[in-house]
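3.2 Worked example (two chains)
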Amino acid sequence: MKKYPKKERQAKLQEVIEANPFITDDELAKTFNVSVQTVRLDRVALSIPELRERIKHVASENFTDSVKSLPLEEVIGEIIDIKPGESAISIFDVKEEHVFKRNHIARGHHLFAQANSLATAVIPNELALTTQATVRFVRQVKLHERVVSKALVRKQTGERTITMVDVRSYVGDEIVLKGKFEMYHATEKVKRTDENENSN
C-alpha cells in the first residue's frame, strides 16, 4: 500500500473526513497505512475534531429540527441519518461502561435502548411513546464493536395513533438485534380532541 508524504497525507485525510465525517481513526490508519497515533496527530494539526465531536456537529446541524419526539442528547447512540416518518440510522460504539467486566459482552439493555430511542426519534410528533416491543438478540456484541441500527416505519393509512417501527441492528454485515416497536403518538386530530376534553 502506498505511503504518502506528510503534507499530501494530511490533505488527503482532510478530503476523506469531509466526504465521510463518520470514519474512525482506525479506518483512516488502514486507509493511509499509518498508525492510529499518526492519524490523531494529523487531525490535531488540521484542527479536525475526534469522531464523536464530528458526529455531534453533523447531527446538530442536520437533525435538530427533524427529531421532535425527544432531544437529540437523549437518543442512545448517534443519529447519522433520519427521514422523519420513514427511516433513521444511528451508530453506537460499545465501550467499557457498556459491557460485563468478566467477559466483555455488551449488556442487552444498551442495545435495546439504542433501538428503542431510534424508533422514538423517527416518529415525527412531539409525543411518541413505546406501547409494546418485541426484541430478539441474534448474537452477542463485544467491547469495541460498532452497532449500526436502522429503523424503518411501516406504511399505514389514515390518521392512526399507533405506528409500527421495525429496527435491525448490525455489527458489520452481521445482524445482532431484530426489533418491532409499537409506537403511540398523538396526531393533530387526537391532540385537538384531548384539548377540547380538557377545556370542558
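3.2.1 Second chain
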Amino acid sequence: MKSNIIGLDQEKSTKLVNELNLLLANFQVYYQNVRGLHWNIKGKNFFQLHVKFEEFYTDAQEKVDLIAERILTLQGTPLHTFSDYSKIASVSVGKNISNDNEAVQLVVTSISELLKIERSILNLADEAEDEGTNSMMSDFIAEQEKTLWMMNAWLG
C-alpha cells in the first residue's frame, strides 16, 4: 500500500480528493447563491433574511477554505475555476431571487444537496481511516442539519 504524507492509503485519498472537489464546487455555487440572496432579498422579511444570508455566505466562505485545505492535505489539487465548478456542481443556481419563500427554499434544497455529498464523503473517509476528513464532515453535517430544520420551520 502506498501512503500519502499523512500516512493514509494514496488510492483511497485520491477518491476522497475527487469527492471533496465535488463538495468544493457545490459549496462555491451555494456561496454565490446566498451572496445573491443577501443582495437581492426584498419584502417584509428583508431585515431578518438579509442578516441570515450574510451569516450563511460567511460560513460557506470558511467551509470552502477548509475543504480546499483538506484537499491539499490529502495531496490533491483543489478546483479553483468557475468553469470547473459549473461542470460538476449539482446545487441549483439561483438567479435574481428576491422573494423570501423562494430564497429560503433555495437554501433548503442547496443544503440538502450538500448533505448528500458530505454523507458520501463521510463513508469514504471512514473506509480510508481518515479521521481528519471524517471529523470535518461530521461537523458540517451536524451544523447543516440544524440549519435545514430551522429553514424548514421558517417555511412552515
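3.3 Remarks
The chain has a mean pLDDT of 98.
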